[in-house]
UniProtKB/TrEMBL annotation:
Family assignment from sequence similarity: Belongs to the CdaR family.
This protein's name: PucR family transcriptional regulator
Segments forming domain PucR C-terminal helix-turn-helix: 341-398
Classification via PANTHER family: CARBOHYDRATE DIACID REGULATOR, DNA-BINDING TRANSCRIPTIONAL ACTIVATOR ADER
Coiled coil: none
InterPro entries: CdaR-like_regulators, CdaR_GGDEF, GAF-like_dom_sf, PucR_C-HTH_dom, PucR_C-HTH_sf
Upper classification of the organism: Bacteria, Bacillati, Bacillota, Bacilli, Bacillales
Any one Pfam family match given in the protein's UniProt record, by short name: HTH_30
Domain spans labelled CdaR GGDEF-like: 158-284
Amino acid sequence: MAKIIEGEVDSLQTLAELISEVMGSPVTIEDEAHRLLAYSMHDPNTDPARIATIIGRRVPEHVQRALYESGAMQRLQDSTEPQHIEQLSEVGLSRRMAISVRHYDEIVGYIWLLEYDGSYTDEQLEQFRHGARIAAGQIMQQQRRQQHIDLLRRLLSGRFQSEQEAAQQAKESGVELPVHHYVLLLEHDHPPDMSGWSERIVQAANEYAIRVTLHMQEPSRIVLLCGFGTTAINAHHADAAALIRSMITRTRELLPQQEELYIAAGEQVGSALHIQRSYRQARELVLLHRQLPETRTIHYYPEAGFYRYLPAMHREAEQFPVTWGPLDRLAAYDQEHNSNLLQTLAVFLDLDSDTKRAATRLHVHSNTLNYRLKRITEVGGIDLTSMSEKVTLYLELKLLWFDTSN
């Protein structure tokens, strides 16, 4: 007979399948409020109550009411032993055997299985009890994980009113918030199988004495709240920015080689109330990675230079657009004459007005470049000897590429 080995149980879903295999019956695992946590594969002989529970992710109210009114729930709550539950045909419930799942004396859930003929061996019943003991640990672990995710979501969204409130919820969740925090964000446009990624990121963090305090994984991204103290910085003879860069480099080494994987860290902050700011910065840096490939080598928000201001400048430009400026004139000229003055200007400014390097980049003769620059000044009404004009044009070109990508 198959046995339930605790070391092989990595989730409640795995446990449900193992119990079903041992007992030869379909299994559902619920929390104390009758919300569905896991269930074994469907069986041809399943009943309407089980189907409704799986579809609705909780036991239907009328089935719960019938179980309490019949006294079945009272017997389950009063005993640690498996209980036989008689058929309740009026609510579509076939015969069941069930057991309460307890963490010490507290009921944290229930395991139910369809009882076909009511004949189970002593060994099967002992395995059923063993499954309930394992389920208790799994449910508590899942509840703690959910508490941690809830805490992280509140920190990321800035829903705490004070440091004391954040510290209190962290303490209740069994989490010690570090003095210095930053948010690390990994996003993927076409999510691969990301199982095991969080563990590898934690490994990279540990190598630099950085602690991953909280994390959550979603289908296309992983969000981590990381922290460290001055001892970590002293141990590695580096500042915070250098440590964060090193951790990200090591993370990339440990993860499978992926295109379209964006990794960004918000600035280090010293208050739980500022974690939201670090998260927003990480998100904006990922947005820059997507829109401007040249920024993909920048992984720490404070090091993004003027690129940090592009999203805000883009929002401002959308709200208060300039309808006809130098770039518009150049774009219109390019379209009418099938020329590339706009691209020429972008390369020229990108290379710090170095005509030799710009001509090489554009694959044109220096005389051709000088002619184009002359046309740029005439068509655009631009003074290329004015630093303020060049800075303005440089930023507006970046905004143009940002807007086009967006």
